[in-house]
């Protein structure tokens, strides 16, 4: 899964990202997911160290395992 086009779209279309577009100290990459429950931010899961696609895949697999284990 390539997240770059989606991230670019969000950075262009949503004001939450517009402040960061020109910030050289900030970058968005695959490998991190916000944990939102009932419209509340509860935390985040982040994996870093591999290619961003691999980081992303590890988080997706981990969240799938949690979903199965806890019947969510």
Features:
single chain, PduO/GlcC-like, flat, 2 strands, PduO/GlcC-like_sf, alpha+beta, 72 residues
Summarize the structure.
This protein is an alpha+beta fold and about 70 residues long. The protein has one domain (about 5-70).
List the helices and strands and how they pair.
Layout: H1 4-13, H2 15-18, E1 32-37, E2 40-46, H3 52-69
Antiparallel strand pairs: 1-2
Explain how this protein is built:
By secondary structure, the protein is an alpha+beta fold. 44% of the residues lie in helices and 18% in strands. The chain has one domain. It has three helices and two strands. The N terminus is likely disordered.
Output the radius of gyration.
14 Å
Query: What is the SS-derived class?
Result: alpha+beta
Number of strands: 2
Task: Identify the strand order in the major beta sheet.
Answer: 1-2
> What string gives the helices and strands in order?
HHEEH
Biggest sheet record: 2 strands, antiparallel
Separation of termini? 23 Å
Poorly predicted tracts of residues: 1-6
Helix content: 40-55%
Please work out how many helical segments DSSP would assign: 3
- On the 0 to 100 scale, the average pLDDT is 76
β-strand amount:
15-25%
Tally of separate domains: 1
User: In one word, what is the shape?
Assistant: flat
InterPro entries: PduO/GlcC-like, PduO/GlcC-like_sf
